[in-house]
Specification:
Keywords: Disulfide bond, Hydrolase, Metal-binding, Metalloprotease, Protease, Signal, Zinc. This is Zinc metalloprotease. Pfam families: Peptidase_M43 (PF05572). Belongs to the peptidase M43B family. There is one protein chain. This protein is α/β, with parallel strands linked by helices and about 350 residues long. The chain has a single domain (about 5-245, about 295-320), classed as 3-Layer(aba) Sandwich (Collagenase (Catalytic Domain)), CATH 3.40.390. Helix content is about 25%, strand content about 10%. The strands form 3 sheets. Strands 1, 2, 3, 4, 5 and 6 form a 6-stranded mixed beta sheet that branches. A two-stranded parallel sheet has the order 7-10. Strands 8-9 form a two-stranded antiparallel ribbon. Strand 1, helix 4 (about 90-100) and strand 2 form a beta-alpha-beta unit. Helix 3 (about 40-60) crosses helix 7 (about 300-310). The longest helix has 20 residues, at about 40-60. The chain starts with a helix and ends in a 44-residue tail after the last helix. About 45% of the residues are buried. The structure holds zinc ion.
């Protein structure tokens, strides 16, 4: 094992105590652990925040493209207990949920009449060819001796997991048992640059616990409707928790989600209030149960599309489906050339300054 791999795995092993019965994603613990050896991680995230805001500010309504963009997905099933070797059907159900939620599809649980709910114009499809143009189902299966994985361990074959497929071409989703009771976690856009290009390219993607993946099958209530992946892919596309991971003085960088002082959990019977306003507890980036969540706002959709364009361009630029048809219009732009510094006042906020 190379030094940086042993380093990251050992470092991440410190994460051990997170409550299990309620939704808890690894976004913040993951950042904190990365920052132990790489304090500049927070600086990079602030930089990313600034770039995303500038992009959306410049593009406004054009930040969401009119043409749907399709992200090629590979799902890595890693199992020791054969009950964790989940069916293709369950994998397909998860892809279906992602598309229902990200497209706000009528007639599905992803549809809502909430006035701010928005179709993101982003879709997901299992890859039909791999990076070497070989036919694939978009699903890999790995039998392991590891009962429960430490963070990041599942992303390496030599540690009992499964190496990523080219992360510049596929959204890699690892499905396995994860230590610490986390439902899942995601690598944020550009956030691991300080760990080196090799690190970024081998770990980028989303991890989901086997019992929280897809609809039905091994998924257990109240997290059995596939919304953990909807939430984690939201992080992967640049979204933050709706309460800004702090009190009322922290924001999520999105102005059409009201400030919230804390996460909401379970199934609130009345609309919670904090920070002088109603919380948008049904937002996918809050912590409520799967059957409560159904909103991405317009500005969240803008931000995810900005992330896709600025940081994950390659995913939509090649044909992972063997169809000979491109899978989405991605307009590379020169925004960060001459006019990159015109909006100096938009400074990206004070995110993560409380660590
Ligand atoms: Zn989260």
């Amino acid at each position: 094992m190379s030094n940086w791999r042993s380093c990251i795995v050992l470092t991440l092993c410190y994460l051990t105590t997170i409550c299990y019965a309620q939704r808890e994603c690894g976004y913040i613990p993951y950042l904190k652990l990365l920052s132990k050896d790489n304090p500049q991680v927070y600086e990079e995230i602030r930089d990313t925040e600034t770039k995303l805001k500038k992009y959306v500010f410049k593009r406004q309504e054009n930040a969401i493209p009119r043409k749907v963009r399709v992200i090629p997905v590979v799902v890595h099933i890693i199992w020791k207990d054969k009950r964790d070797n989940i069916s293709d059907r369950q994998v397909h159900s998860q892809i279906q949920v992602l598309n229902e939620d990200y497209r706000k599809k009528r007639g599905t649980k992803g549809y809502t009449r909430h006035p701010l709910a928005t179709d993101t114009m982003i879709e997901f499809r299992l890859a039909k060819v791999d990076a070497h143009w070989r036919k694939t189902t978009g699903i890999t299966r790995t039998r392991t001796k590891v009962s429960v994985f430490q963070l990041e361990q599942m992303k390496f074959s030599e540690l009992g997991g499964k190496d990523a497929w080219d992360t510049t071409r596929f959204l890699n989703i690892w499905v396995c048992r994860v230590r610490g009771g986390l439902l899942g976690y995601a690598q944020f856009p550009n956030g691991s640059r300080s760990l080196g290009q090799e690190k970024t390219n081998t770990t980028d993607g989303v991890v989901i616990g086997t019992r929280f993946f897809g609809r039905g099958g091994s998924a257990k209530k109240p997290f059995d409707l596939g919304r953990t992946a909807t939430h984690e892919v939201g992080h992967w596309l640049g979204l933050r928790h709706i309460w800004g991971d702090g009190g009322c003085d922290k924001d999520d960088g999105v102005s059409d989600t009201p400030l919230a002082g804390r996460p909401n959990r379970g199934h609130p019977r009345q609309r919670p209030h904090s920070c002088g306003s109603e919380d948008m507890f049904e937002n996918y980036m809050d912590y409520c149960d799967d059957n409560v969540q159904n909103v991405f706002t317009y500005e969240q959709a803008q931000r995810m599309n900005a992330t896709l364009t600025l940081y994950r361009l390659g995913l939509c630029e090649w044909d992972a489906f063997g169809s000979g048809v491109d899978n989405g219009e991605v307009s590379g732009d020169d925004f960060f050339s001459d006019d990159a510094n015109k909006n100096k006042d938009d400074d990206g906020g004070d995110f993560f300054d409380d660590h």
